[in-house]
C-alpha cells in the first residue's frame, strides 16, 4: 500500500511582474530581478544577463527585500528639538527642511564657502556629489575612500593607470596562478566567487596571503598567514628572488614601462633623480639600434634597459639600473625578510620559483596581431598567466601606498598586466595620473570652485596650501602631511573641525556616513566632539545636516535630517564618469530606478541636492532666468552633459544618424531604454583591442570613439614615479615651495619614487613589548558596512561577533569556550567575548566589523545581541597617532595619501570576568522610528 503524498506546489506563482535593476547591498552593483506581486516586492534574484554577476546573487543581494522593508527606515524630514545625541526630533515638511538647509548654506556660500564641509559615504555617485560641492564653491568635499582603500587606488593610478577591483580584474579564463593579498569577503564578492570557481574547474592554483584564513583564503590551495603590515616586505622579497633568477620580462619592461628611461644621475644637478628629457619634454631612452638617446615614443625605437649616457663627466643611468641596485640588495633576501614577515625563507623562495615557472614556462600566446603606439606590429599577444588581487588588508596601513606600489611593480616585472592570463583593466581605465585632473581648491564667495576637488598632484606646486603654508582644506588633504590624498581624509574632518585646525566650520553636511559609530576611529571621542560646546554654550560644530535611509547611530547627532529612500525607490546612475560596472572585455554602466514608490515622506538624496542647488542658485543647476534646470535626479541623468556629447550614461544617446553609444546628445527615452535592457548598457571592446590597452592603437581608437578619451593617449607604466621624486627633492631643499622642517625627513624617506617598505608609523610611538598583538577587523561576506546587521535575514548569520584569538594566545591566556577578554590599546579598552581560531597568524586577533550596534539605533531592541555581545574595535583606535611631545597633531594615516591606518592597531590582552554586556557600554539613544516588531512578516499577494 503506497503512502499518500501531500499535494505540493513545487512551482508557485512567484510574481506577476519582474522589474530589473541594480543591487545596492554591497559595492558589486550586480544585476537583480525584482519580482513584484500586487505592486509589492515579493522576491529578488540575480539577473542572468547582467555582465557583473550573470545571475549569481549572494546572501546580501537576496536579503535586499528585508533592507527595503526594514523597520529602521526613516519616515520624514526631522528637526532636532533636544540636545545633540538625545535623538529627540520633530517631523517637519520638506519645504521646512530645505528652507532650513538653505538658511544655513546660503550665507556661507556668499561669505566663506569653505565653512561648509560636505562629505559623503559609500554613495556611488561621487561624480554628481562632487559637482554639487564644486558649484557650491567649498573646497571641503570628499567621499569615503580615505577610510577604505585610497592607497590601493592611488598607488595603482600613479604606477600603472589603474588598480584592482573597480579598475580591473584577473583574466579568469586564462590565469594559472592567482594570488590574493588582504582580501576580505565583502568587496566584489560575486565576481570573485565566480572567478574562483572557474579557476578551480581548470585546476589553477590559488594562494591567499592574509593573517586571517576565512572566505577566499579558506578555499585557497595555499594560505600564507603573514604578519600584518609586512606584505610589502614579502612582495619585495619575491621581487628580489625573481630579479636574482633573471625571471622578469625584459622585453615588456623595455617596451611598456619607464624602466629604460634615463635618470639625471648628477647629485649636483637641480634635476637630480628626474628623467632626462629632450627639448619637447619627452622622456629619453637609449635606442638599442643606434646606441644614442631618443624620445621614448619615437617610431621604431627599441629602448635599452641597460642604456646609459655620459655627459659632463657624469654617467646617467636608467630606472632599471636603480631597480637592480635596490632590489638585489641582501636586505630583501628571504633569509632576512622571512623572520620579520612570519614566513620561512624556504617558503618565500618556493613561492617566487612557482610564480616564475608559471609566468615563463607556461606562457600563453594568442594568435592576434596588434599594433603598438610606436607603430610596431606584433603577430602575437604573449601572456604571463599569473594574476593578483588585493584590497583593504594591504591598503589600510600607514605603509600601504608603497606596499600597493610594490605589488603593482611585481605584476609589471612579470609582464602580467594587460596581457593574456594576467591583470586586465576595466574601461574607462587605464588612465595614468596625468590624465586625471589635479586638485582644485580656490574658493571665492558666491562663485563655484575653480575645478574638481580631487585629483592627482604632479608636484609640490599642486598642493592645497595658502601663501603662508597653512592647509586650505579642513581635512588637510593635498598638504605636506599627505600630498597625494586623492580621496581626501574623511576620518579627520570632525577632529580637525572640532580642534579648529586649520579652522572652524559652520556646517557639516554628511550623507550615509555613520561617523558617530562604525565609520570613525576613536568612536567615543567623536561622539563627544559632535556634542561639545564652547564657552558660550554653543556647539563647537554649529550645524550638522545628515541624510540617511535608516535610523543609524549618526542620526541622533544631527540637527536636520533629510531622509533618503531605499535603493529600490530611487534613481541612481552607475556611470563611466564615476564607478562603472565595466568588465575587461567591455565598458558598461547601469541605473537604478524606482521599482516601487516610497510609502513614507522620503526623497532620494541626489534629487534633494538638485532641489537645494536650485534654491541656492548654483551655476549649472539653474537656467539663465534662475529657474531650476533639472526637475530631479532622473532628469539630471538624462540631460546633464559633463562636456558636449558626454553625459552620465553612455548608452542610447542621440547621434547624427540615430542612436549611438558613448558620444551623443541627450535622449529623453534614455532611462526607458536602460530599463528595457535590464538596467544596464554594455559596449564591447573589439577582439584586437582586448589586451595591451595602454599601448594598443586599436584600443586607443575605440576608447576615443566611446568618449573615454578625446584623443589617443598611450603612456608608459611608471615603476619610477617622478612626482614622488619632486616631493622628495623639495624635502631635500630644492624648489620654490618648501615643506616645514618637521616633515622633511619623513618626506625624504616615504616619498621614494621606487617602491620600498618601512614599518608602520605607529610602531615608533608604541611600546611594542607592552602591545605585542596586532588587532584587525574585516567585513563578512553576508554584511556590508553597518547596513546588514539591521537586516532581519542577515543578522541571523552574524547577530554578534567574538574576538578571534590564535592558538598561541588562547593557550597563553588559559581561555575556554565562553570566556571573555579585556583588550587594551594605547588609546582605549574593550571587554568582549573570545573565540579560538587556529587558522590565524599567531600574533594577530580579529573580529567582524560593524556588527556591534549602539542601543536605540537601527530599530533594534536594547537587548539585541548586536548591542549586548556585539562590539567594535573602533573604540581602541584613534585618528591621531600617540603624541611624541612636539605639540603637533599627527594623523594616524598613510603619510603619502592620508589613508586611515585602521590595521596598524596593536593591543595587549588578558582574561576577564564576563560582564553583563560587551564593554564599553553607552546609554541607549532615542530613535525617531522606535523599535521594530518582534517578528517581521507581511503577506505579498494572495
TrEMBL record:
Residues 430-466, 914-942 are annotated as: Disordered. It is found in: Cell envelope. Transmembrane segments: none annotated. Belongs to the prokaryotic molybdopterin-containing oxidoreductase family. Keywords: 4Fe-4S, Iron, Iron-sulfur, Metal-binding, Oxidoreductase. It comes from Thalassococcus lentus. The lineage of its organism: Bacteria, Pseudomonadati, Pseudomonadota, Alphaproteobacteria, Rhodobacterales. Residues 16-72 form the 4Fe-4S Mo/W bis-MGD-type domain. Its main location: other. Its cofactor is [4Fe-4S] cluster. The keyword Metal-binding applies. This is Molybdopterin oxidoreductase family protein.
Amino acid at each position: 500500500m503506497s503512502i499518500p503524498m501531500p499535494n505540493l506546489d513545487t512551482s508557485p506563482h512567484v510574481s506577476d511582474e519582474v522589474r530589473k535593476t541594480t543591487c545596492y547591498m554591497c559595492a558589486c552593483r550586480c544585476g537583480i530581478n525584482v519580482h513584484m506581486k500586487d505592486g509589492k516586492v515579493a522576491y529578488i534574484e540575480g539577473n542572468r544577463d547582467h555582465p557583473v554577476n550573470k545571475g549569481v546573487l549572494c546572501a546580501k543581494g537576496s536579503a535586499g527585500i528585508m533592507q527595503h522593508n526594514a523597520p529602521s527606515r526613516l519616515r520624514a524630514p526631522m528637526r532636532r528639538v533636544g540636545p545633540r545625541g538625545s535623538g529627540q526630533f520633530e517631523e517637519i515638511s520638506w519645504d521646512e527642511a530645505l528652507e532650513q538647509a538653505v538658511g544655513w548654506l546660503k550665507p556661507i556660500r556668499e561669505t566663506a564657502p569653505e565653512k561648509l564641509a560636505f562629505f559623503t559615504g559609500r554613495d556611488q555617485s561621487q561624480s554628481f556629489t562632487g559637482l554639487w560641492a564644486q558649484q557650491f564653491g567649498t573646497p571641503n568635499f570628499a567621499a569615503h575612500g580615505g577610510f577604505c582603500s585610497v592607497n590601493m587606488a592611488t598607488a595603482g593610478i600613479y604606477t600603472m593607470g589603474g588598480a584592482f577591483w573597480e579598475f580591473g580584474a584577473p583574466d579568469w579564463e586564462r590565469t594559472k596562478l592567482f594570488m590574493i593579498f588582504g582580501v576580505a569577503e565583502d568587496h566584489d564578492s560575486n565576481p570573485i566567487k565566480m572567478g574562483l570557481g572557474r579557476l578551480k574547474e581548470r585546476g589553477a592554483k590559488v594562494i591567499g596571503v592574509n593573517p586571517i584564513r576565512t572566505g577566499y583564503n579558506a578555499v585557497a590551495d595555499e594560505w600564507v598567514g603573514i604578519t600584518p603590515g609586512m606584505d610589502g616586505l614579502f612582495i619585495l622579497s619575491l621581487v628580489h628572488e625573481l630579479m636574482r633568477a633573471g625571471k622578469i620580462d625584459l622585453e615588456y619592461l623595455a617596451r611598456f614601462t619607464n624602466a629604460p628611461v634615463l635618470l639625471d644621475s648628477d647629485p649636483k644637478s637641480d634635476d637630480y633623480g628626474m628623467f632626462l628629457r629632450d627639448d619637447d619634454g619627452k622622456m629619453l631612452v637609449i635606442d638599442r639600434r643606434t646606441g644614442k638617446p631618443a624620445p621614448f615614443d619615437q617610431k621604431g625605437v627599441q629602448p635599452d634597459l641597460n642604456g646609459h649616457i655620459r655627459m659632463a663627466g657624469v654617467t646617467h643611468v636608467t630606472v632599471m639600473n636603480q631597480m637592480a641596485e635596490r632590489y638585489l640588495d641582501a636586505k630583501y633576501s628571504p633569509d632576512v625578510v622571512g623572520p620579520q614577515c612570519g614566513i620561512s625563507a624556504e617558503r618565500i623562495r618556493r613561492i617566487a620559483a612557482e610564480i616564475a615557472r608559471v609566468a615563463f614556462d607556461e606562457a600563453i600566446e594568442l594568435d592576434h596581431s596588434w599594433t603598438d603606439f610606436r607603430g610596431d606590429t606584433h603577430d602575437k599577444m604573449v601572456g604571463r598567466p599569473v594574476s593578483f588581487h588585493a584590497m583593504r588588508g594591504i591598503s589600510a596601513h600607514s605603509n600601504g601606498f608603497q606596499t600597493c606600489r610594490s605589488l603593482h611593480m611585481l605584476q609589471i616585472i612579470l609582464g602580467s598586466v594587460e596581457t593574456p592570463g594576467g591583470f586586465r583593466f576595466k574601461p574607462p581605465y587605464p588612465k595614468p595620473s596625468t590624465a586625471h585632473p589635479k586638485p582644485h581648491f580656490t574658493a571665492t564667495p558666491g562663485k563655484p570652485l575653480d575645478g574638481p576637488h580631487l585629483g592627482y598632484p604632479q608636484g609640490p606646486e599642486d598642493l592645497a596650501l595658502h601663501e603662508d603654508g597653512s592647509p586650505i582644506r579642513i581635512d588637510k588633504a593635498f598638504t605636506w602631511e599627505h600630498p597625494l590624498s586623492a580621496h581626501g581624509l574623511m576620518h579627520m574632518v570632525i577632529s580637525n573641525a572640532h580642534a579648529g585646525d586649520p579652522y572652524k566650520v559652520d556646517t557639516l553636511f554628511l550623507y550615509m556616513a555613520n561617523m558617530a559609530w562604525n565609520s570613525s576611529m576613536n568612536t567615543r571621542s567623536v561622539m563627544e566632539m559632535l556634542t561639545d560646546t564652547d564657552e558660550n554654550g554653543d556647539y563647537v560644530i554649529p550645524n550638522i545636516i545628515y541624510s540617511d535611509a535608516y535610523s543609524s547611530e549618526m542620526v541622533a547627532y544631527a540637527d536636520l535630517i533629510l531622509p533618503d529612500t531605499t535603493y529600490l525607490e530611487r534613481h541612481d546612475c552607475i556611470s563611466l564618469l564615476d564607478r562603472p560596472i565595466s568588465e575587461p572585455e567591455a565598458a558598461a554602466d547601469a541605473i537604478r530606478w524606482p521599482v516601487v514608490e516610497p510609502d513614507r515622506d522620503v526623497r532620494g538624496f541626489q534629487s534633494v541636492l538638485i532641489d537645494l542647488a536650485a534654491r541656492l542658485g548654483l551655476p549649472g543647476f539653474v537656467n539663465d532666468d534662475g529657474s531650476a534646470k533639472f526637475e530631479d535626479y532622473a532628469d539630471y541623468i538624462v540631460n546633464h552633459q559633463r562636456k558636449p556629447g558626454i553625459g552620465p550614461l553612455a548608452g542610447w544617446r542621440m547621434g547624427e544618424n540615430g542612436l549611438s553609444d558613448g558620444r551623443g546628445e541627450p535622449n529623453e527615452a534614455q532611462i526607458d531604454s536602460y530599463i528595457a535592457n535590464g538596467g544596464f548598457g554594455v559596449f564591447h571592446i573589439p577582439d584586437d583591442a582586448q589586451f595591451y590597452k595602454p599601448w594598443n592603437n586599436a584600443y586607443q581608437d575605440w576608447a576615443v570613439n566611446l568618449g573615454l578619451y578625446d584623443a589617443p593617449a598611450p603612456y608608459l607604466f611608471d615603476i619610477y614615479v617622478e612626482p614622488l621624486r619632486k616631493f622628495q627633492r623639495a624635502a631635500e631643499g630644492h624648489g620654490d615651495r618648501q615643506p616645514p622642517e618637521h616633515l622633511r625627513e619623513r618626506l625624504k624617506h616615504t616619498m621614494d619614487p621606487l617602491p620600498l617598505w618601512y614599518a608602520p608609523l605607529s610602531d615608533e610611538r608604541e611600546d611594542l613589548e607592552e602591545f605585542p598583538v596586532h588587532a584587525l577587523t574585516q567585513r563578512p561576506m553576508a554584511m556590508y558596512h553597518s547596513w546588514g546587521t539591521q537586516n532581519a535575514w542577515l543578522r541571523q548569520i552574524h547577530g554578534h561577533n567574538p574576538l578571534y584569538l590564535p592558538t598561541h594566545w588562547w593557550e597563553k591566556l588559559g581561555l575556554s569556550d565562553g570566556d571573555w577578554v579585556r583588550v587594551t590599546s594605547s588609546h582605549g579598552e574593550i571587554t568582549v567575548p573570545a573565540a579560538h581560531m587556529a587558522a590565524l597568524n599567531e600574533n594577530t586577533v580579529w573580529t567582524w566589523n560593524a556588527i556591534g550596534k549602539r542601543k536605540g539605533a537601527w530599530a533594534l531592541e536594547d537587548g539585541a545581541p548586536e548591542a549586548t555581545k556585539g562590539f567594535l574595535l573602533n573604540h581602541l583606535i584613534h585618528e591621531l597617532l600617540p603624541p611624541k611631545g612636539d605639540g603637533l597633531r599627527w594623523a594616524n594615516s598613510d603619510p603619502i595619501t592620508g589613508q586611515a591606518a585602521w590595521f596598524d592597531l596593536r593591543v595587549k590582552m588578558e582574561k576577564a570576568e564576563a560582564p553583563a554586556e560587551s564593554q564599553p557600554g553607552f546609554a541607549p539613544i532615542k530613535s525617531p522610528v522606535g523599535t521594530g516588531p518582534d517578528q517581521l512578516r507581511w503577506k505579498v499577494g494572495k
